[in-house]
């Protein structure tokens, strides 16, 4: 058995069987060696940890796939083709530079999705509000929209993404509509 348990899905069931076998041997009194107890005390918590990790990872992957499916479906419904797209904290952001539209699809607190098509000509300015939050200000009296970027594994990755989008949108807003 390798030392890397995250790559082989059989490892969790092997650990459970090993723990059950250890427990059966100890209960039957077949072995008096205290090392068996140590093995049992190591395998049971390790099995519980791996099981929790698998459940959490599976749920996260399903949520990400659901978000991607919803994002793609809504974008196709609006006839958008993205020149660039980015994952937000609880959603996705896409830019169709040819049509001059910004598309944001975000998951609400209740689990439903909210999709917004934001024409670039309606956006007056954009600014970084904090480390990984990009705020869009509109020409109309509509309140500003905050786009919260996913921080990622590194703490500065979200800042770089939000800054990159702020520069990109700033250039598009100065340039004007695309013909």
Write the layout of secondary structure elements.
Layout: H1 11-28, H2 34-77, E1 84-87, E2 91-96, E3 101-107, E4 113-119, E5 123-130, E6 133-138, E7 145-148, H3 157-175
Helix pairs in contact: 1-2
Question: Which parts are unreliable, with pLDDT below 50 for 5 consecutive residues or more?
Answer: 1-6
Largest sheet: 4 strands, antiparallel
| Strand-pairing-aware structural class | alpha+beta
User: How many angstroms separate the termini?
Assistant: 61 Å
User: How many helices in DSSP terms?
Assistant: 3
The CATH topology of the largest domain, please?
PH-domain like
Q: What value does the average pLDDT take?
A: 78
Number of domain units? 2
Query: What string gives the helices and strands in order?
Result: HHEEEEEEEH
Roughly what percent helix?
40-55%
Strand order in space, largest sheet: 1-2-3-4
CATH architecture of the largest domain: Roll
Radius of gyration: 25 Å
How many DSSP-defined strands? Answer: 7
The CATH superfamily of the largest domain is Pleckstrin-homology domain (PH domain)/Phosphotyrosine-binding domain (PTB)
What portion of residues belong to β-strands?
Answer: 15-25%
Question: Which word captures the global form?
Answer: elongated
Keywords: Membrane, Transmembrane, Transmembrane helix
Transmembrane segments: 38-56
